[in-house]
Amino acid sequence: xxxxxxxxxxxxxxxxSRLCPVCGAVSYSRGGIHPQCAQQxxxxxxxxxxxxxxxxxxxxxxxxxxxxxSYWHKRCPQCQAxxxxxxxxxxxxxxxxxxx
Length: 100
What we know:
- Helix content is 30%, strand content 6%.
- It contains 1 helix and 2 strands, in the order H-E-E.
- It has one helix at 35-64, and strands at residues 73-75, 82-84.
- Strand 1 and strand 2 (82-84) form a beta hairpin.
- It is rod-shaped, with a radius of gyration of 34 Å.
């Protein structure tokens, strides 16, 4: 008996597998990139613009919503400053009624 490993009959030069440039996994598609990765790559600039617009809209919403405040605050009638409910005197000098 022979204890040597058999030598393969065909030693072909196998080209290296194509790696997807986005996810790094082996890709078998013609372009070398997965279709979902190509879509994600194409959508990246648009999604960046959408997220930036959403942040700006959120900031504008908070600025427009500054007239509303929580139940724990009250507004000074003279300077329109927000004060905690228990404060009886504003920085501008206005005194709130103690009856309330």
